[in-house]
Amino acid sequence: MFVNLFKHSIKTQVKQQTTNYSYSIHNILESVDIGQEIKIKGWIKSLRKQKDNVFLDISDGSTAKKLQIIIPNNIVPKNLTTGASIITQGILQTSPNGQKEINANKIKIFNNCIVTDGYPFAPRKKYLPEYVRQYLHFRPRTNKFSSVLRTRSTAQLCFHDYLTNKGYINIQTPVLTSNDCEGAGEIFRVIPESQNLLKSMVKPGPTFRAENSKSRLHLAEFYMLEAEIAFIEELEALTTAVEELVKDVTKLVVEKCQDDLDVCRENTIDCYHWLNKSFVTLEYDEAENILKKNKDKFERSFRREIGISKEQELFLVQHCGNVPTFIINWPKDIKPFYMKESEDDPSKVLAFDLLVPGVGEMVGGSLREDNIEKLKRNLSNDQLDWYIDLRKFGGVPTAGYGLGFERYLLFLTGIQNIKDVIPFPRWPHNCSM
Predict the structure, then answer these.
(1) Taking CA 399 as the corner, what is the angle to CA 275 and CA 246, rounded to the nearest 5 degrees?
(2) pTM of the predicted model, to two decimals?
(3) What string of DSSP letters covers 283-336?
(4) Quick check: 42 and 69 in contact, CB under 8 A?
(5) Residue 42 pairs with which residues in a beta bridge?
(6) Is the pLDDT of residue 355 over 90?
(7) Helices 143-165 and 235-264, axial angle in degrees (round to 10)
(8) 3-class SS at 86?
(9) Which DSSP letter does residue 231 get?
């Protein structure tokens, strides 16, 4: 008898806890059974008043989908507005069109949202990205940017899981560096504002590498996925690894984020037609010939000593059927010191850029030079002696690549401006918040 009462007591407690539990909208739509009494917290996205009830569409940030709440007029708080944050409780039921909805019996306002008091987004009104970008702290409240953030989070997790399953080890490298490893000179000094502290420092401040550009494809602060692979000696093995990464991760993200991708897409082209096609590979010399034959189509003529411009990158991808395209075997004099010299042509390095539709360069990589004498000749000072030491003492053939994460998100979503796929964009002369 004691055991039976004890079991009954546990069941009662569990039922009470379930009733008081606050679910996310994602969980409600995916797994909560009809007939349960549940709580939901979130923001009102739209509000419609009828004779007996008020109908709310509510969002909590967990999904692109909204949940309809039906509230009897006799319990509707005064001055309830779109944008208000609320908690409501009621029975989960099915609407006439087959969708889940909550028939509420309680509602509480956390805080109202009065548009006329300075809130920049009016209900049911669309705004240009340039306008929305002025209010970075409110961007996640918009349907589009909340979808971008969920997609960004999922993509980051998919990359991490994919590489972990492939045997990669994740490490955190410094953000600040004293080395301009790429040789591009795009560095600026990080120094304290306090003049007294500055005078007390024996050496100048450290440096931070960034891009000095305000274009739709550049940021002053951005994220890179950097991977290094040991015991790899063929460039084709490296490009194959990158192709598999891009295809497999994209398939995962599309599967998990289709609703969000539908919300944030800015173009109508089929962005995933390439998933079941082989990536194109062009020798740098082939790419050069294509560009020279089409020189009348560019604002700036191709110059070998400068490399391939953004306009020319986009043309090459289009020329190759809008399929991601590897450009391989680059001129040595326009690539960094650490890229491996080609044995067949010492003027070339075994490097690649992966160009993708709408973006241009998204990934860059190479085999790494492991010939110590060549490395010494490539270096003009002893700042990177440690790099030579790594090859000198038990060094092995290696290769690696860097994938621009924000550029990948542009490629994935079809969004046009890179400032709209990162929570807090920084570019020259702009560092709001």
Answers:
(1) 15
(2) 0.87
(3) EHHHHHHHHHHTGGG-SS--BTTTB--HHHHHHHHHHTTSS-EEEEEEEGGGS-
(4) no
(5) 86
(6) yes
(7) 150
(8) strand
(9) S
Chain-centre distance for alpha carbon 66: 23
For the chain, the residue count is 433
Number of Cβ atoms within 10 Å of the Cβ of 77 = 14
Number of H helices, E strands in the chain: 11, 14
Closest CA to 340 of 238, 242, 236, 233: 233
**Tokens, residue 60:** 């909590």
In sign, the C-alpha dihedral spanning 133, 137, 140, 141 is negative
H or E element that contains 392 = helix 385-392
What distance separates the 2 farthest-apart alpha carbons in the chain? 92
Q: Which secondary structure element, helix H or strand E, spans residue 260, and what is its range?
A: helix 235-264
pLDDT digits 0-9 by tens, 121-160: 988 888 999 999 999 999 999 999 999 999 999 999 999 9
- How is residue 177 written in tokens? 């560096």
Report the chain's mean pLDDT, rounded to a whole number: 87
- 270-294 burial, b at 16+ Cβ within 10 Å, e below that, comes to ebeebeeeebbbbebeebbebbeee
| Location of structure tokens 């240009």 | 128
The vertex-269 CA angle with 263 and 275, nearest 5°, equals 95
Closest CA to 308 of 361, 363, 365, 236: 361
Residue type present at position 431: C
Closest among 284, 254, 250, 272 to 322, alpha carbons compared: 272
Three-class secondary structure of residue 173 per DSSP: coil
Q: Are the beta carbons of 184 and 399 closer than 8 angstroms? A: no
Two structure tokens written together for 160: 């991490």
Burial of 376 (0-12, 13-18, 19+ CB in 10 A): exposed
**Can you state the angle between helices 310-319 and 284-293, rounded to 10 degrees?**
90
> CA 96 to CA 100: how far, in whole Å?
9
